[in-house]
Amino acid sequence: MDGLDVFEALYRELSDLRSELASLFEELEFVNRFLIPRAQTSYLIKVGALRVELLQTQLHVMKTRRRIALLRSNIDNGEMMFDDSINDRMEAEFSDWDSRLAHEVSQIERAKARFSSLAPTEDESEVRKIFRVLCRKFNPEINPDQSDEAKSFWPNVYSAYTEGDLFHLKALLLMSDDYPDNYDLPCNISAMRESKSALKEKIRREKSQLRNARAHPAFEWLDLLRDGKRLASEQNRLRDEITRIKAQLVALLDMQKSLEPRGARS
Q: b or e along 93-117 (b: 16 or more beta carbons within 10 Å of the residue's beta carbon)?
């Protein structure tokens, strides 16, 4: 193979590597920026809200049992313990649990608030396709030797993608014709081989990051959310557990009520 053939073969290989890296970059961005947040949000609303309700009920049971124990101790010892004293002690003992519950509740509220904004759009497939094309040409990780003018183009591309702005991406795609496809290619075989090695290393890194991203629990949640029977089964299990614990709570509240007047007279 003569020098020209080697150059052309490397040129094609570099082009293929850039395309592969652009696709990997877009997929990783999509997973981290869209897919995982959507899975988290949907899971919080459809399953997490029931888990929080279960936690609230369990905490109510724990507090009621503790109040009963304090009232009984008060009665057994013949000591005065007013409601304010019991409440202060309860607040101190359960402050960590109350903080945890408040955090869980706020997560559910935030998930509900952002749910509609994270929903997939009809344009999503085209947005991703155009972004891959522009990414291959303007992403500085893929084209480190591009001109300053071309470098200034990339932030606009990335911003339009993260906002899901198809109209803007289409406009940027039209504008991209003003930039040559080969402005960043090395001009000799040695430099092309170095560029090939660098691209392969970046592809290896990107694949590793993508594997790590796909190990996120969100993908297990997605499997659950996509399986209607499993989802319904998990929701029903949580509802049954909530009902069971609420029945315990009713009995405990009756016991607490029977003790409170005696505690108040002590």
A: ebeeeeeebeebeebbeebeeeeee
